[in-house]
Amino acid sequence: MLPLTVTIPIVEKHIELSKQSIAKNSEEDAEFVKEIVVSFSKVDTLTILNINNLEEAVSKFEHIVDHAWFKLLKPIRITRHSKSWWNDKCSQDLVKYHSSRTIENWKAFQKTVKITKRKFKKLSTKSIDHRSL
């Protein structure tokens, strides 16, 4: 047996500390969907009789989505404590605990975190098709 040696070059990389997004299940998310549905319904699709009309309609749809997206997105700061499973309920329960410092609110926060993590993990594993691995 021969030992295997691998050299991995490590390059300094800039990691973005913020992004702009619309939080899932937020008021902005609901407004985003509502605005797109209303705007899409106003696009005349009956005149799509050739490729040029189709390209115009697709361009209008793209403009509608872009306009709604940039109108409603919010900056999100990414920290070393950021978690992909964290949601508004976790934040609300944490704020509630911080303001009261009661054991009941701490337990409620812990329960919310546990449930949220469990749901997130369940959704994450559902999206992976294990047969393709």
What does this structure look like?
The chain is 56% helix and 6% strand. It is built from 4 helices and 2 strands. Strands 1-2 form a two-stranded antiparallel sheet.
Could you give the topology of this structure?
Layout lengths: L17 E4 L5 H15 L9 H22 L1 E4 L10 H13 L2 H24 L7
Antiparallel strand pairs: 1-2
Helix pairs in contact: 1-2, 3-4
Task: Write a compact overview of the structure shown.
The chain has helices at 27-41, 51-72, 88-100, 103-126, and strands spanning 18-21, 74-77. The protein has 133 residues and is mainly alpha-helical. Mean pLDDT is 82; it is low at 127-133.
Q: Strand order of the main beta sheet, please? A: 1-2
Radius of gyration: 23 Å
Query: How would you characterize the largest beta sheet?
Result: 2 strands, antiparallel
Number of helices: 4
Mean pLDDT: 82
Number of strands: 2
The dominant shape is flat
The first-to-last residue Cα distance is: 30 Å
Number of domains: 2
Instruction: Give the helix proportion (percent range).
Output: 55-70%
Helix-strand pattern? EHHEHH
Taken as a percent bin, the fraction of beta residues is 5-15%
Structural class: mainly alpha
Low-pLDDT ranges: 127-133
